[in-house]
Amino acid sequence: MSPPDTLLLLLAALAIEAALGYPKGLYARIGHPVTWLGALIAALDDSLNRETASYAARKAAGLAALVILLCATIAFASTVTRLCLALGPLGLLPLALLASTLLAQRSLYEHVADVAEGLEQGGLSKGRKAVAMIVGRNPESLDEAGVSRAAIESLAENFSDGVVAPAFWLGLAGLPGCALYKAINTADSMIGHKTPRHLAFGWAAARLDDLVNLPASRLTALLLIAAAALDREADAAGAWKAVRRDAHRHRSPNAGWPEAAMAGALGLRLAGPRIYGETRVEDGWMGDGRAEATAADIRRALRLYRGACLMLWALAAAGVALLATV
């Protein structure tokens, strides 16, 4: 597919996902593309990650597992693309439907909104229950401000990982590019941890995930800053300042960019020390505002997120229009 076609595919996929999401009934029947990728990754982990092997051997096995995953993904996505394009212009619709399953605009909004609603209607216990669905940290260690910050941080980081990054690779390389990104990102989420089992085996997946997320994390920060400039209750200058000052302080080479932009735009402090399970993780603060976030701040973050999504749509549309005149 040529760049105008991939950008048109991106616009169609964004619109379908925003309108429909991924139907729960369909998920119950056949699962989701990410769960299919997860099943393959789990099988590779079980068969290739041998605890009796040396560090170097497990590192090589993890690289082999990643290559197998990526080869299977590109073969499937390329075949589907060829079959759809064989239908002519009408093939764009089934291709966009498939691509929409790899985006998460609607589901991310709904999950984060559930946290705000839980705090507003059920208090801290309901807020903790809702936030446990989207973050890995220990919810029992969180007060209301901690729950609110966790939800906003998840919104910012997953806007990059779950929306902008797959959209970027979809617009650049069509369904194969987007599917490859999701395979890498899913592998990182499953095996890219510094645990005894996955420190060596997941090394390649973690490093490649850092690389493929690099452009989208920067773009996400810019989208949030642009959205803040059009939001009367947000601070675009504060977002820009926070990104320049704080993004590099985050333990992740990419997550600090959207989190710093969100923090600066809302006048909050995000990230900082957190507890995952029983482990305390020391991290730099993003932003220099107040740490006492509330459910109202989650609502503000969701409004900023909607604006940034519209900015992403506008950017894709501008790309289509520009390339159509070339």
From TrEMBL:
<keyword id="KW-0169">Cobalamin biosynthesis</keyword>
<dbReference type="InterPro" id="IPR004485">
    <property type="entry name" value="Cobalamin_biosynth_CobD/CbiB"/>
</dbReference>
<keyword id="KW-0812">Transmembrane</keyword>
<dbReference type="GO" id="GO:0009236">
    <property type="term" value="P:cobalamin biosynthetic process"/>
</dbReference>
<keyword id="KW-1133">Transmembrane helix</keyword>
<comment type="similarity">
    <text>Belongs to the CobD/CbiB family.</text>
</comment>
<protein>
    <recommendedName>
        <fullName>Cobalamin biosynthesis protein CobD</fullName>
    </recommendedName>
</protein>
<keyword id="KW-0472">Membrane</keyword>
<comment type="function">
    <text>Converts cobyric acid to cobinamide by the addition of aminopropanol on the F carboxylic group.</text>
</comment>
<dbReference type="GO" id="GO:0005886">
    <property type="term" value="C:plasma membrane"/>
</dbReference>
<dbReference type="GO" id="GO:0048472">
    <property type="term" value="F:threonine-phosphate decarboxylase activity"/>
</dbReference>
<dbReference type="GO" id="GO:0015420">
    <property type="term" value="F:ABC-type vitamin B12 transporter activity"/>
</dbReference>
<keyword id="KW-1003">Cell membrane</keyword>
<dbReference type="Pfam" id="PF03186">
    <property type="entry name" value="CobD_Cbib"/>
</dbReference>
<feature type="transmembrane region" description="Helical">
    <location>
        <begin position="60"/>
        <end position="80"/>
    </location>
</feature>
<feature type="transmembrane region" description="Helical">
    <location>
        <begin position="304"/>
        <end position="324"/>
    </location>
</feature>
<feature type="transmembrane region" description="Helical">
    <location>
        <begin position="86"/>
        <end position="104"/>
    </location>
</feature>
<comment type="pathway">
    <text>Cofactor biosynthesis; adenosylcobalamin biosynthesis.</text>
</comment>
